[in-house]
Amino acid sequence: MFRRLPDADLVAAATVSIVIDGRPFAARAGDTVAAALLAAGRATFRTTPLSGAPRGPYCLMGTCFDCLVTIDDAAGRQACLVAVAPGMRIDTRGGAR
Amino acid sequence: MTHTISYDVAIVGGGLVGAAIAFGMRSLGSRLVVLDEGDVAFRAARGNFGLIWVQGKGAGLPPYGAWTQRSAREWPRLADELRTGTGIDVALAQPGGIHVCLARDELDRRVASLAALFAQPGFDRYPVEVLDRAGIAARLPGVGADVVGGTWGALDGHCNPLKLLRALHAGVVRAGGAYRSDHAVDGIVPGAESFTLDTAGGRIVARRVVLAAGLGNARLAPMVGLDAPVRPNKGHVIALERVPPFLSLPVETIRQTDEGTVLVGDAQQDLGFDETPGLDVLAAMAARAVRVFPHLAGVRVTRTWAALRVICPDGFPVYEQSAAHPGAFVATCHSGVTLAAAHAYALAPAIASGTLPAAFNPFTAQRFDVSQAA
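Above: the input entities. Below: the structure tokens describing the complete assembly.
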């Protein structure tokens, strides 16, 4: 669903090893967690605590609070505001906290 | 120069008070207009906490307790009519509400103040129970060790105040009433059989005028021979992220919405027309909320805001008909949510009838016309 812009592909970016839901993933250095998850093919980042409806990033600028994930065991982090870091563990399976 | 009378009733103010009165008068259809300001207005209706709250009300003015109680009892009808008429569910729940106390003396003072309230002559008592810690813990799972007890009011509850405002507006418009935004009223000129209102959106002529302009009432009321000595009173709200339902009752300063959001609302400050949230106030509110529910310490804050209550020197509403210009009325209070049903089903019909009944006499601003003792 999401692909990098052609221009972005021309830049040879360093990769950062992270873990998404227990599986290793090579993220692009400088990406946010939200960008890394989208690049990994994840559109659903969480489910809502009441109805269990799927949610993903909407605004990508820190306003909508729809991209909440668990990062290094801290629940409810805004994926669009955190940059990937080596060894970072990202979990989208927490669901309701 | 003569003006065509455009409306039977012009309501100045499209917040919760004006909108509830308009909803109660919606059978006027196209003969009703609501004049509202623009987005820059001080909008208590868009900053409030959403409680329908009875317990503790009426100290110093028993009719205010009765008025509040009446509104709470009529709220289910209002929510039903809004849902049926507009399709908007305002998320009303009245499971009772709890006031928690974090110290023995705090609870003692609470119990004493309620006892004094109920002991007033002619007080129409409403159901309130004192709860010890076990009683609180049974109703509020996860309550913190610092909570020593509290009081439970059977009529208390909450709703979604933004949906309430939207539903009231929708109900008025569906009935044919006119809603005019960007129509801040600059001046009102009483005439022989009508009022001419100069607004930012042009001139409006109406047979009757109802001032429900919140803080603006202080400026507008004297134009029609009335008095509304209202002042801004700043409150704060902290919105936390949505979490699975854990709180089935509103706890006066903490509630969980039907959508899972946890709100913390508190503080009363007389700081003039300043809506800037204060970090010190927010920190104190958050600290207290975490003492009530320790697990909230791990729940993230998504937004904070401050808004201005509209409050008279004695904290009670003003409802009054102008003696000099009997087609003019003023309505102002700081509990636009709680009193919405009373405004729609008692105040609006009274204004529509042309005369406020004697039952409203305790609420006139004449109570402030008392000479100071030397």
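Note for the figure: Chain B touches chain A at residues 241-245, 259-260, 298-300, 302 (CB under 8 Å).
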